[in-house]
Design a protein that fits this description.
The structure is a homodimer of 194-residue chains. The first copy, chain A, has three helices and eleven strands. With 194 residues, chain A is an alpha+beta fold.
Chain lengths: 194, 194
């Protein structure tokens, strides 16, 4: 890891990225999930400054499982970066070599034990594009069958089965604040899918 | 900045954060907007591992300005971390010492030249809680009056005035992917406000 703390010039000086110019760039931190780079830049306006970015090595997938009776499932956990308990859709990471739909199938099965016979997309999002390149994909999963959960060995998860209308209300009254969950749940209602 | 690359122990060893235990923590990067910390942790399950987090020094505010005829405004810019052009609601940073509503008034005025006589909240969100503690607030702004823009000296922004129904459609067909914009626009329709 040590060499990541040493400045590394780009192969070409004054590298362009869209209307931005990167004078110099070096990686200040890297772990299996993220890479943090510091840049000396010239903004599109010509103003010089700095820009720190967080690159994600994978994306995120969130699944809205919908039972025949209209129920859905939420997963609860204490989110370490936030230091708060958070109720969310079943979700997880999508490594670069995994298709989002396959990651969604896997995460739904691991976190809720559910498998689904019918899948459709519920959006592709850029999560926080001022600092990161994080992407997220939403999915609706129907035709559900219950199996066993397979939690990651770092996850301590709670599960609730609730009517979709209650979960939608939770996105509107502040009980669900996770932005990916909010967007995917609200999109399902706007499209008349749930 | 150099001392930030040196490991710094917490004042108490085995510091608790909810069900997590932090064995050791050090800051690996800091700039005026974010701080990146590396942690050696014990997960709630008892498994040991690492966790890199990005702490935001401010939040984000996004404003849905709504004209009497139902039009709204989008702002376009090339987002450096993503290296893509992105159309979004007027938005910007909310420093810790500024109230979200005041930041919303300021960002709307700076980016569109609009001021509004009527404001209401359109949600409080945790943007990407797997890695960050970033928060965002949405607002609906009505009773609009046009003034002059005051762009930041790093911003090269384009502005579009469009019917709200068209902007809502853009969140559903992938022309708007910025997650904060998507959530705030869709919430306004679900609440019957736009």
């Amino acid at each position: 890891m040590e060499q990541q703390h040493e400045p590394r010039n780009m192969s070409s000086k004054n590298h362009r990225r869209g209307p931005w110019t990167i004078q110099q760039q070096h990686t200040v931190y890297e772990n299996p999930w993220i890479k943090v780079d510091h840049h000396d830049v010239t903004a599109p306006t010509g103003k010089t400054g700095i820009y720190g970015t967080v690159s994600f090595k994978g994306g995120a997938v969130a699944v809205l499982p919908l039972a025949d009776n209209g129920d859905t499932w939420l997963v609860g956990q204490h989110r370490f970066p936030l230091d708060e308990y958070s109720w969310e859709l079943p979700m997880g990471g999508c490594p670069k070599d995994e298709q989002p739909l396959e990651a969604a199938r896997r995460e739904l099965r691991e976190e809720t034990g559910l498998s689904a016979s019918s899948w459709q997309g519920l959006g592709h999002y850029h999560v926080s594009n001022c600092i990161t390149d994080e992407q997220a994909w939403g999915f609706l999963a129907e035709g559900l069958e219950q199996g066993d959960t397979e939690f990651d060995d770092t996850e301590e998860l709670a599960i609730q089965r609730l009517p979709f209308d209650e979960v939608l209300a939770m996105t509107l009254d502040g009980r669900i604040t996770d932005l990916v969950s909010v967007a995917v749940i609200q999109r399902a209602r706007l499209l008349g899918l749930a």
